[in-house]
Amino acid sequence: MTATIRARKSSEPAAGGQTVRPSVAQAVAKAAADESVRLGLEHRLWAASAHLLWERAGVHPGDVVLDLGCGPGHATMDLAQIVGPEGLVIALDENPNFLKQLGEQASARRLEHVERVLGDAQDLAGVLAHHEGKVDVVFARWLFAYPPRPRAIIDGARKMLKPGGQLVIQDFVNLRRGTTMVPRSEAMDRFHTALDASFRGAQRDPDVIEQLPRMLVEAGLTIAHLDSHQRLARPGEPLWHWPRCMIEGFLPGMIASGQMTTGDGAALLASWDESAKLPYAFACLPPLMDLIGRKDA
Ligand SMILES: C[S@@+](CC[C@H](N)C(=O)[O-])C[C@H]1O[C@@H](n2cnc3c(N)ncnc32)[C@H](O)[C@@H]1O
User: Which of 69, 94, 119, 180 sits at 20 to 30 Å (Cα–Cα) from 139?
Assistant: First the structure.
């Protein structure tokens, strides 16, 4: 069950006909509940484009794939089904809880050919030396906005690849603008300004994704594919849940760090609820960039 669905339930009419609105405190508690739930929703919403990109990169049965920053492993398990038991998926993340979840899910699905590795994606030579030069495809989705040294990830990935192997990246571009609501919402604009500031405050560049094609070329990879997808969401559609889920995920930290007030948070959630009632409302989601870099023989 997603955080969004739970939020909706708490807005349902209470006995006696009164509507109970979720307070910001409730939203905060829900948000803390489970990042992996949000990642599961994101995977479901963007899985089709991941599969198309894997097809374009030619991921085949028997391949060795490295899933960098795999999280709870939603993509990892799809990849494991594609490469089959003759292949291997190495799933690397710095978060042991995600790797534990992945282990449980992979065993339940009898995906024995998933190797879980706890480590820093910026130090692949250190943690994955035994796989150097043996990997067909390195996949990294929604990873690059987090570690401070993206170029180190690209250099490490290049080392892991066989000649002819490919680094396949999917990430949101123009995160600073984030989701644009129509009708326009000042509260949403304030949220994105604060989110941008919170990234920068943590010495991270929220627009680092724009730099990746250049970094690939500078690392000696050839850009084999570069494209983006823009999606719109209307109230009631599955995609409509996602921006709210993002808000609930990031809001608590932003309130705790003083980048937003609880009043801002309440206004944001209220403006979202108001938009959801308008039959002409829509949300422009951040474009998802597809990027493939090939290591020429
Ligand atoms: C937004 S999640 C994306 C998860 C997954 N790739 C997916 O598509 O669902 C980002 C993941 O990157 C991981 N991560 C961030 N920095 C990392 C680093 N330096 N090394 C390894 N993993 C990292 C986080 O722990 C988290 O699981």
Answer: 180
Q: Is the CB of 199 under 6 A from ligand 1?
A: no
Ligand 1 neighbour 71 (Cβ under 6 A): yes
The two three-digit tokens of residue 48, written as one number: 């089709």
Instruction: Evaluate whether 187 touches 264 at the Cβ level (below 8 Å).
Output: yes
Q: Which atom of ligand 1 is nearest to the CA of 121?
A: 20
Domains of the chain with CATH codes: 3-7+21-294 (3.40.50.150)
* Cβ of 69 below 6 Å from ligand 1: yes
Q: Is 146 in the pocket of ligand 1 (CB under 6 A)?
A: yes
Per residue in 32-52, pLDDT (tens digit) is 346 888 888 889 999 999 999
**Given pLDDT bands bounded at 50, 70 and 90, which one contains residue 58?**
very high
pTM of the model: 0.86
Query: 32-41: string of b/e by CB count within 10 Å (b at 16+)?
Result: eeebbbbbeb
